[in-house]
Write a structure and sequence with these properties.
The chain is α/β, with parallel strands linked by helices and 730 residues long. 54% of the residues lie in helices and 7% in strands. It contains 24 helices and nine strands. Strand 3 and strand 4 form a beta hairpin. The N and C termini lie close together (8 Å).
């Protein structure tokens, strides 16, 4: 047990000597907290038995002082500063002056404070093994030369030290102050609400009144602490002015406790010697409880830092002979990691968000596919546009059937709209691949900024190189669709089917007449079968067209009087459909036959005898397009074109929805995976570039050195811990 405190002191020396942050491992120590004028300095000097701390008004302790006390019966009394390695101070007056000098070296001759500690080790036969941290005294009001927020600065430094779970808090309160107003106990309660690691010290017992509640305080009745309280007297300012030594003060304290009415019966629990013993036992027991955890913490940190060291690499291996092999190794590993991200084998933080290939899948099927599927081909063309296209395709004369050129012109116009979304899809996928390149993390590559930037530049050119043929192929897909309008496609509705759909919609407007026609068809079918003939079939559109073409000009002209001409009027005529949409009775065949052979007699045109009576035509507009209310024929033609356009656009839509993702994967994604390693080697594996590429970052070099130093510290710390025998019982 007696070895425990020296062991911790050795650990502190190891961490401090190699300039490693004290926060790396939290070692057990006693932190002294008290208000100014609470007697904090006198308590520490009494524990050491020598005058060695600066004194004065205002803030005297402006930097934490880590004080290691080492008991040695065979040695004299001397001190050693860590910042003055190898220099021994046997004159405690010089120790006091060095504390002042070291404080001024960092802070100057000001009233400012700092959390950077001064480390002092005192060896003496009069001390017990302890580690104490003396902090600046708590204050509320800044004096001249102090910062306005001096109270908050001191509080922050105190909390920095007492918040560590391994720290024992030594809260000092003067006996002539109200315990409820103790600043030190209030701060201790903030970080140790249950009082498990706080030791209370009541100073200046010689100033207490006989009728006070001091005994209740010392016995822990007012504010209980697990580790209890201690009472001390210490030297008064008058004693210090009178050059009363610490040893004389300790003797006076003992005489006071022996003779005092209140304290004589518990004198073995009061005084500086009792306090020193209490602190030593408390620290020893605390170390006993925490040492296994400290060992585990050091082992875990050592393993972590050794892994970090592997990331930084060994500079001794980066010789001229190995530079080429190192570059090839990093390039190969980078290309492999890039492929793994795209193929879903990169599972780092895979539950947080989509990465790599899953984002490409989202682009193809959640963005591009849905956009194309929801695209309305009539979003950019109106019925007037369709009628205008039909009229342009007809030219001077009216066509017998819906002009095919109008359909092709309109459908090509809509197909070309699919090109831009396809190119956007490839562009978005290209941007995602750039992000994938940046997401590739190789520990070996983090050492070399130049190498990393060079790889990113080459991969940027690789992706650009793959993007061009991808865009061209997408344009070719659209060009293929517009280059040949395949009206024989099995999924295309076709002209005849489109017309039949229109007719069926018109014929089903009047259900009664539809039933009557159906009964007539059944009757004709039955009569034909009785005669041994074939079942009755309605004339097809083609047959009606042939019948229409066999008419003489006069009969055809009679049909033109029905506000239209061509195959549609003949079809409407034979089906008995009037221009107002209702069915009409069919003309008897005899009335049509009577017109056969009759000459066509156009209306005579009378000559104009007076130019004033002449009818003048309006001026031809510069811009002419279909407008106004459409005729029945125009309505039918428009509807047929729309059905044909929608049907064929659906066919092309499926092809593009399938072709663009395939094109992007083949020419952009897969191609970049296949050529990445080859292009990186061609561009970067040049002996002239080796030194430039393998130039280490300044930060990496410094981090490697710091990591190596820390590894040495941790290994030394484990060696020190192994010096403790029977560690399993600790």
């Amino acid at each position: 047990m007696d070895q425990l405190i020296p062991i911790v002191n050795k650990l502190q020396d190891i961490f401090a000597t190699l300039k490693v942050s004290s926060n790396v491992i939290d070692l057990p120590q006693i932190v002294v907290v008290g208000a100014q004028s609470s007697g904090k300095t006198s308590v520490l000097e009494a524990i050491v038995g020598r005058d060695f701390l600066p004194r004065g008004t205002g803030i005297v302790t402006r930097r934490p002082l880590i004080l290691q006390l080492r008991h040695n019966s065979d040695a004299g009394e001397y001190g050693e500063f860590l910042h003055k390695e190898g220099q021994v101070y046997s004159d405690f007056g010089k120790i006091k002056q060095e504390i002042v000098n070291e404080t001024n070296r960092l802070l100057g001759d000001t009233k400012n404070i700092s959390s950077t500690p001064i480390r002092l080790k005192i060896t003496s036969p009069k001390v017990v093994d302890l580690t104490l941290v003396d902090l600046p005294g708590l204050t509320k009001i800044p004096v001249e030369g102090q910062p306005p927020d001096i109270e908050l600065q001191i509080r922050d430094i105190v909390l920095q030290y007492i918040s560590v779970p391994n720290a024992i808090i030594l809260a000092i309160t003067a006996a002539n102050t109200d315990l409820a107003n103790s600043d030190s106990l209030r701060l201790a309660r903030d970080v140790d609400p249950n009082g498990y690691r706080t030791v209370g010290v009541v100073s200046k017992l010689d100033l207490v009144d006989l009728d006070s509640q001091i005994m209740d305080v010392l016995q822990g009745k007012l504010y209980p602490l697990k580790k209890g309280y201690a009472g001390v007297m210490c030297r008064s300012p008058a004693d210090i002015t009178a050059k009363k030594t610490v040893q004389e003060g300790l003797s006076a304290e003992q005489d006071f406790l022996n003779s005092h009415t209140l304290f004589s019966h518990m004198k073995d629990k009061l005084g500086i010697p009792s306090l020193a013993k209490l602190l030593s036992n408390s620290l020893m027991n605390h170390i006993k409880e925490e040492l296994p955890g400290i060992r585990s913490q050091i082992s875990t940190l050592l393993t972590q830092k050794e892994m970090d060291m592997a990331k930084y690499g060994d500079p001794l291996l980066d010789t001229v002979e190995n530079k080429g092999a190192l570059i090839l190794h990093i390039i190969s590993k980078f290309a492999q990691s890039y492929t793994e991200i795209l193929e879903g084998r990169f599972m780092h933080h895979s539950t947080d968000e989509f990465i790599g290939g899953s984002r490409l899948n989202y682009i193809f099927f959640e963005i591009f596919n849905k956009t194309i599927t929801n695209l309305d081909p009539f979003e950019t063309i109106s019925d007037e546009d369709i009628r205008t296209a039909i009229q342009n395709a007809n030219g001077v004369k009216m066509a017998l059937f819906v002009p095919e050129l109008a359909f092709e012109s309109l459908v090509k116009q809509q197909i070309r709209r699919l090109e831009e979304p396809g190119l956007q899809c490839a562009s978005i996928a290209h941007e995602e691949l750039r992000k994938c390149v940046l997401q590739v993390t190789i520990p070996e590559l983090t050492r070399f900024n130049n190498f990393q930037n060079a790889i990113f530049d080459v991969m940027e050119r690789v992706l650009e190189k793959c993007l061009h043929p991808t865009n061209q192929m997408i344009k070719n897909l659209v060009e293929i669709e517009t280059g040949f309008i395949n009206t024989s496609h099995p999924d295309f509705v076709g002209g005849v089917n489109a017309m039949l759909k229109i007719f069926q919609e018109n014929l089903t407007d009047d259900h009664g007449e539809e039933d009557e026609e159906m009964q007539e068809d059944q009757r004709r079918d039955y009569e034909n079968q009785l005669r041994g003939g074939a079942p009755y079939q309605k004339a097809t559109i083609t047959e009606k067209a042939q019948e229409y073409s066999a008419l003489d000009p006069q009969s055809a002209a009679a049909l033109k009087d029905r506000k239209g001409s061509g195959l549609f009027e003949w079809t409407k005529y034979k089906l008995g459909i009037r221009n107002d949409g209702r069915k009409d009775k069919q003309l008897p065949q005899s009335s049509l036959d009577s017109n056969v052979g009759r000459p066509y007699d156009p209306l005579p045109i009378n000559s104009v005898t007076n130019w004033k009576d002449a009818i003048r035509l309006p001026q031809l507009p510069n811009f002419i397009r279909a407008q106004g209310d459409p005729t029945t024929r125009q309505k039918m033609e428009t509807e047929i074109i729309k059905k044909l356009l929608m049907s064929y656009f659906d066919v092309v839509r499926k092809n593009i929805n399938d072709g663009v993702p395939k094109t992007t994967m083949t020419f952009l994604v897969n191609q970049s995976k296949q050529i990445a390693q080859r292009e990186l080697i061609i561009e970067l594996y040049k002996e002239a570039n080796f030194d430039y590429l393998l130039t280490e970052n300044d930060t990496v070099s410094s981090e490697r050195k710091a990591t190596m130093d820390l590894i040495k510290v941790l290994r030394s710390a484990l060696t020190v811990l192994n010096e403790v025998r029977d560690l399993h019982i600790v």
